[in-house]
Amino acid sequence: MQSLEAELERARELDTADLADAIESIGFECTRCGACCKAEADDPHTATVFPDEVRDLQAATEYDWRDVARPMPYGLDDGESADTDDAEDDAETDESESETEPTGETFEWALQTDACGDCAFYEEADDGTGACSVHGDRPLICETYPFSVALGGTSQPMGEAVDEAGMVRAHECEGLGRDISREDAEELAAALKERAVRELAEAIAVRDEYAPADPDEGVVVHDSEGAKRPDGSAYEG
């Protein structure tokens, strides 16, 4: 497998005109169905967000770090206590005492979710159409959905592709197959290239900055800026 550095060079050399051609051939128009912003079955919405994107959203909303982002849950111990057959003990045990906080190390941030598992920034109108309350400041992964670029290496987000053209992969979305203007395709292609470059640069920085943390001390998130606590503060291990 090629190195991350070699893959990053490939990302930087992507031709946005070729990407736009691919997007045009697949076709896309957002229907505002909200599916990409909402929980799926029992799985909360999960969208990767870079550290600087978290700060941009903080600036746009005046929210705390935790209101914007959460540690990516993959690889963490969820902290749930084992089930017990003693119903009487269960009734007498306070929930807060029967569960512990998640622990472990993870390597990405995800957008925060609400109590339903939907993106914290998702809003739904009375007619059922969805909207993003921070649309102008939304992360690159949101801006480029439902597309990704397949460079043959590490990062292939959002599951299996349902359509493809060249290096461009399209993921499940009811807006696929609809006409898209050249201008919109080029704008989407530029964002798609930027995202491919950013994802690989982030991965390289995480690798270079990584030092093992103590999983017994809660959750540690390793990002391109070093190790952090869930509130975005630096982890001092």
Can you describe this structure?
This protein is of the alpha+beta class and 237 residues long. It has a domain at 1-28 and 146-210 and 221-226. The chain contains eight helices and eleven strands. β5 (122-124) and β6 (130-132) form a beta hairpin. The longest helix has 28 residues, at 182-209. Mean pLDDT is 89; it is low at 81-98.
The major pleated sheet works out as: 3 strands, antiparallel
Mean pLDDT level: 89
Distance between the termini: 33 Å
Beta content: 15-25%
Low-confidence stretches: 81-98
Rounded to an integer in angstroms, the radius of gyration calculated over CA atoms is 20 Å
- What is the ordering of alpha helices and beta strands? HHEHHEHHEEEEHEEEHEE
Helix content: 25-40%
- Give me the number of helical elements: 8
Global structural class: alpha+beta
- Number of DSSP E strands: 11
Shape: globular
Strand order of the largest sheet: 1-4-2
What's the short version?
This protein has 237 residues and is of the alpha+beta class. The chain has helices at residues 4-12, 16-26, 51-61, 65-68, 87-92, 95-98, 140-144, 182-209, and strands spanning 48-49, 69-71, 104-106, 109-111, 122-124, 130-132, 147-149, 161-165, 168-171, 219-223, 226-228.
